[in-house]
Amino acid sequence: MSGMLVNLIIQLVAGAIGGNAVGAAAKDMSLGSLGNTIAGAIGGGVGGQILTALIPMLSGAAAGGVDLGALAGQAVGGGVAGAILTAIIGAVKNKTA
After folding, report:
1. Helix (H) / strand (E) containing 74
2. Is-contact 59 52, C-beta < 8 A?
3. Which of 19, 70, 92, 94 sits 20 to 30 Å CA-CA off 61?
4. 3-state secondary structure 16-32
5. Range(s) of the domain holding residue 9
6. 56 CB contacts (<8 Å, ≥6 apart)?
7. Is 0.85 topped by the overall pTM?
């Protein structure tokens, strides 16, 4: 499996976790379990890719092997981005309702 695909999977999973964490912490921003998971995964994937483009060190490509620091950076970046996107969508949904 290529390093880019591993990074994307980590970002998607971390984003889904971040989205569900925001949904559990802020009930007024929750989109439901499935909505939190989908919004978080999208946010984690997109945000993580943007973060990797801005900070190439997070890609882990220079190490040539498994770089735990880069994997942790991908997980944190994806989780935060997933949480942010879920919170934004939840806030917009509540304002329009």
Report:
1. helix 68-96
2. yes
3. 19
4. HHHHHHHHHHCHHHCCH
5. 3-96
6. none
7. yes
Q: Which two tokens stand for residue 85?
A: 């996107």
Residue labelled with tokens 């509540």: 94
Q: How many domains does the chain have?
A: 1
CA of 8: how far to CAs of 14, 68, 74, in Å? 10, 15, 8
Chain-centroid distance of CA 18 in Å reads 7
Task: Tally DSSP H helices, then E strands, for the chain.
Answer: 3, 0
Cα–Cα distance, 41 to 55 (Å, whole number): 20
Tokens standing for residue 12: 């998607």
Radius of gyration of the chain (CA): 14
Cβ atoms of 36 and 42 closer than 8 Å: no
**Cβ atoms < 10 Å from Cβ of 49:** 18
